[in-house]
């Protein structure tokens, strides 16, 4: 009995071992995916497929990819000619591309992205500038081990760009790595340059170092004389009317509300007076363009549209306020022209300053009539040679804006004169 029981145990163990072996070779139970079942069937139907693991050397070769060559361009540099530039002035950048790789010859693409507040003046090697490709300069070159390529380009900062503070220039080197031609590797360089305001005439310097110029004097005059006029005009009218009312007993005296209403009317009069001062300065500039500007020939270097943002705040239906942002389109051109034996490079609007439009079609229509590289007649200010226009005219937009304040100024001035004369 004992022997038979032992034999039965041996037979049971052998049967369980065969079942485990078959389960390891091709498990067909419900716990495995159909894809694994299909692999088992393929191995059974094709006995030529070896049922063995990969060798260690094979695994190592499979996991090892192409050598990373991003550091091959680590010696490249983007160098500005100066760390600071004045708004409206040119600055030159030098891009040195150095390849320290081992490949005999490599095709690369060098890209320079024009920063937002600049316009292109020149580039070496020369390039056909295309505005449609995000204002990028692109060169396609070939470079070998230890070889260095040099690119130079000059740009001019647009007027009124000192508020941005810093100009960030970026250049990139792009290539396709070996055995992975469907990918694009890149190495990018950046350079920061400070933008300063234009030097202006300083009439007086305060002890704290703040300079006082013509603009500060005009603003100070308005801040001091404006409130004085707002209070002086109603006071003079009320003082002249008080003794007249006492002499003429039958005249009905003015109410307190009517007397207080003189102060907001006086404020509107002073505000319209400031608009009149601005309109007068614009009119003098328009006259000067036709009288004092000198004619020359300008070569158009670049053209673009600068986006200016304007914000307005309104009361929301709830407890907060809504801020509306409007983007205005300003057309700008960069030109080069001779003045007294030297070449001037300047950037500005092609026509006299007008109202900016939130629609880009007006700016596009303005720039469509000019082509890069062509010469056009232009006029410049002999006192300020960097001020120019490609078409003389009047600032009609400002005049349209000033019609309303000028009408208000006329009727308020007439009303105050009548009240003062009695």
Task: Using the alpha-carbon principal axes, give the shape.
Answer: elongated
Low-confidence stretches: 1-6, 19-32, 40-68
N-to-C SSE series? HHHEEEEEEEEEEEHHHEEEHEEH
Q: What characterizes the major β-sheet?
A: 5 strands, mixed
For the record, the count of structural domains works out to 3
Radius of gyration: 40 Å
Strand ordering within the main sheet: 2-9-8-4-6
Mean pLDDT: 76
Summarize the structure.
Helix content is 35%, strand content 31%. The chain is α+β, with helices and mostly antiparallel strands.
Protein model, in words:
- There is one protein chain.
- The protein is of the alpha+beta class.
- It has 3 domains: 60 residues, no CATH class; 127 residues, ntegrin, alpha v. Chain A, domain 4 (Immunoglobulin-like, Sandwich), CATH 2.60.40.1530; 187 residues, no CATH class.
- The protein contains 8 helices and 16 strands.
- α4 crosses α6 and α6 crosses α8.
Layout of SSEs?
Blueprint: H1 2-25, H2 34-45, H3 56-63, E1 77-80, E2 84-86, E3 90-98, E4 106-113, E5 118-124, E6 136-143, E7 148-157, E8 166-175, E9 185-196, E10 204-205, E11 211-212, H4 214-247, H5 256-260, H6 262-291, E12 294-315, E13 321-339, E14 342-348, H7 360-367, E15 375-380, E16 388-389, H8 396-421
Parallel strand pairs: 2-9
Antiparallel strand pairs: 1-3, 3-7, 4-6, 4-8, 5-7, 8-9, 10-11, 12-13, 12-15, 13-14, 15-16
Helix pairs in contact: 4-6, 6-8
